[in-house]
Amino acid sequence: MSKTKKTLPPGIGRVLKRLHYPVDVILLCVRWYVAYSLSLRNLEEMMAERGVEVDHSTVHRWVIKLVPLFEKAFHRHKRPVGTSWRMDETYVKVGGQWKYLYRAVDKAGTTVDFLLRARRDKAAARRYFEKAIKRNGEPGTVTIDKSGANRAALEALNAERETPIQIRQVKYLNNRVEQDHRAIKRIIRPMMGFKDFRCARIILSGIEVIHMIRKGQMKDDGSARTVADQFYSLVI
Question: In terms of pTM, does the model score above 0.90?
Fold first, then answer.
């Protein structure tokens, strides 16, 4: 964590200055929360063992304030993805109700993009594809399950394109993205669901960023940096 001694960029510097704790402590708590299967109370106890008294609700505020900065910075350093996508959605509990996390990986298992939506329908699927294409470019092929909503969304997009996206509905080809969901679900399990949609969206984006860094999706300078160092370098 010695890198946190550097002069901070104005944006992150202003945020951290208002949080009234050492930078190292704040960034460590944020990283641990989105990187590992820990609850906020787990983090409170772990920091107390290290002589740092911090309430679990304070850690939550740090996560909500800082994760959007990490995500924004990460997408400036994200490596390109392939053009053959596997797309699927998984369930996430928010406010006691199931919501839908849309995700896709390419054929190599690289994360394409993600989007949390309240409903599982054509409009939600289309919004996901629009976001993913805007950030990553157009795919040549998208493999989906038997979902009629996902197919309808792709067909609507194809109707507006000169070169249509090839649509495949082959269950076994989607095993890769279904397996990839597990890494995300494993982290959120101790959280016992999210209180509200905004917090869920922010925290999930932090989990996805760490997951992509672990998969080698962040451009670097060629040095063998740890996942932690790559994560911190996004804001310091």
Answer: yes
